Amino acid sequence: MKPPLAVAQPAPWPEQLSTVAAFATPGLALWLPSGYSYGAVLLLLGALLTLHRWSRQPQSAWTWAFAAAMLAMAVLWALQADPAESFGRADRPAKYTLGAMCLLYVTVFPPRPKALLAGLVVGTVGAGAIAVWQMYGLHAERAWGHTNAIQYGNLALCMAAMLALYAGAVWAHMAWAPRVLCVLGVAAGLNASVLSQSRGGWLALLLALPVLLGWLALHQRRVFKVVSLGVVALVLLLSVANRGVLQERWKLMEQEVQGYEQRGDAGNSVGQRLEHWRFAWDIARERPLLGWGFAGYMAEKARRAEAGQYHRSIVEYKFVHNEFLDQWVKLGVAGPLVLLLFYALPIAMFAPLASRMRNYRCDAALGAHALALRLCGTCVPILYVGFGLTQVFFAHNSGIMFYLFMLMLCWAALHSLERQLASLPVAEVLA
User: Could you tell me if 158 and 193 are in contact, meaning their C-beta atoms sit under 8 angstroms apart?
Assistant: First the structure.
């Protein structure tokens, strides 16, 4: 007589909640206003309801380090808050602080990795659909989704890059229908970035591609071929389809650079950034250790612009349009050091080292998803470094929320895979 088949037990409700959040965070990110916040709210709700459970569980050193980095960023933004914002001064520090709580919750109750993949597909397709509608249905000058065009284009690009890496890693384990959806999603996300005309995002992609593709070429030749051929083909296709938009944007950039160099014209996007950088670089070197503080930075900018040393167009803006310069000029050397840690720590956490991938040899499918999550987790901070060259991306709600919650969900999903690996029979693990 055959033993009865074991019936798979449903996951505990906190894990189901995390799985929904893993889908919703990228899936709704650009479909809805503040769409990236819905998954975050679910995680916060779960964290509060299960505080008595996850707070007693052990955490890895990497998890504690990432939580500490979040709290360090909370302090960083509290120190440079605008006094005029009143209660708004607590907004950014609160996001980092609550993010650390959500991280500790979601690693104890991790989501299913496939939910992230599905969310990336839905999110990129949605971003592309909205961009096409706004450009060709509403005849707008550039696509903006439900936020600023720069944030919209950069997040669409980030999700497209993550989806390309994830799909490339698990390509051999997908049927044709999911493959087609992934290709459509990558194309839609990249197209949304092009139609947003966010040039900083394109610069970020140029910086990230050599790093990611170089690593794949050395360590994962099969994934390298899938990702590189697919991305090159899509970029060429989208460049041809949107050549008018790209040519016009490139020509405008050349004109703005020439105007600044020849006439000191800082009354446009590029000129204002160059003038901001010049001003920040000049005064940061005067107080390199402790910085000027927010009030000192704003007052000195107004004073020197009034004296004719810098263009008046920079006076009204609170940020320098460069993450590192902005932190240095306001907080001194501690600012860029903490920011550098916040970029570097996730790269070190997620780096798909051979020693980390060795245990997955017994199950190719689990190994493919583990590689995918590690590639995605490495991709996000590298792209954010590029975004931060021309904008203070962490000054925006979208920049903070997407970075925190996408990284913590990728990290938690890795925990889910490790649990599945640990549950395999010993004979399979040793095979």
Answer: no
